[in-house]
Design a protein that fits this description.
The chain has 119 residues and is mainly beta. It is built from no helices and 10 strands. Strands 2-10-9-4-5-6 form a 6-stranded mixed sheet, with no helix packed on it. Strands 1-3-8-7 form a 4-stranded antiparallel sheet, with no helix packed on it.
Amino acid sequence: QVHLVESGGGLVQAGGSLRLSCAASGIIFRLNVMGWYRQAPGKQRELVARITIGGNTYYADSVRGRFTISRDNPKNTVYLQMNSLKPEDTAVYYCNAIGAGGSPKYGGWGQGTQVTVSS
């Protein structure tokens, strides 16, 4: 059974930083492309960053240059370092593996971690 447990969110002022963590179990972590998603109130969930098995990264335009995704395979954990946060980054952040078609691989999302950026 797949378990994805996100942590590290919180309330921060604009311009601040947070580091999110996602611990995965029930999957062969090192063989999965991993991604961070976010869902703001009233909006669809969107992919903000992904990291391949080999460590190549992709970022949505809205976060490129401010967010950094990384992974620690021995710890089965993926991270999202978020700097220069803006109020529009406010959302619940989730992680998931990414399937061959680019869609989230597992239907059982974790509880997510709330990020709130005040202006």
